[in-house]
Amino acid sequence: MNSIRFSCSSLPQDIILKISSSLQVIDLCALSSCSRFWRELCGSDILWEPLFRQRWPLLSSFDGDNTQFPQAQTNENSQEWRRFYVMQHKKMASRASEVITYVTKCPATLSLEAGKYLQAVETMSSMRLGFQDVELFLFKPNLSVLLNLIGLIYCIQHLKPLREQILDALRRCGISEQLVWVKWLTLGRWSGGRRMRDEIVSRQVSLVDVVTGKEETVLRVLQRGVVHEVLRVCISTVDLACTPCSSSTIRNY
């Protein structure tokens, strides 16, 4: 019996594209390096446009100039979306690096007041980082846990992914059990016509506990920062004593 030679290139292209559409970016890039046939097919806009929109759902156009998304192509061999994906990946890597530099300007024993870390969160929002950007650039075990936490707060506040999605990312990146100290100063309560002394609360929490709701109070304080009865909030890598705030430091950071 004559042997039957079979190759993927003998399959209909629509079937090959359907199979390839289930791959992640790293796998798609690996497949494209196998041959010229796969390089051309794996660069198709049909594959890269969904990958782009899934990773950066908040983007409607490219900031920094007036370049819009690639228009619908009549040429089925167009590979514009892959080029745009690579450009945006590099841009987001640069932006994440700015956040990392901003946070790591602190002393060796990192400690950030609410104003500092919330400013980093808002900066990430203005940069429109996607969830995969946070996972790639901030959910790293070799970075400070404060950066891990800032990335986590940003995801919860602005991206609102499913809880399971965040937990999977934290575990996949090996940072779910990273510990951080959260401390805040609350205004003393009134009792018997007198105001009690201000109270300092200090909690050591893991990132996974913040996500699962086990430390819901901590997450609420982290997200709100200095507001109403909370006079001061800070996060640190060690249990630093929160000194009472003077009148000059009791403000909305």
UniProtKB/TrEMBL annotation:
It comes from Arabidopsis arenosa (Sand rock-cress). One of its GO terms (biological process) is SCF-dependent proteasomal ubiquitin-dependent protein catabolic process. This is F-box domain-containing protein. GO terms for cellular component: SCF ubiquitin ligase complex. InterPro entries: F-box-like_dom_sf, F-box_dom, FBXO4. Transmembrane segments: none annotated. PROSITE patterns: FBOX. The lineage of its organism: Eukaryota, Viridiplantae, Streptophyta, Embryophyta, Tracheophyta. Pfam families: F-box-like (PF12937). Residues 5-51 form the F-box domain.
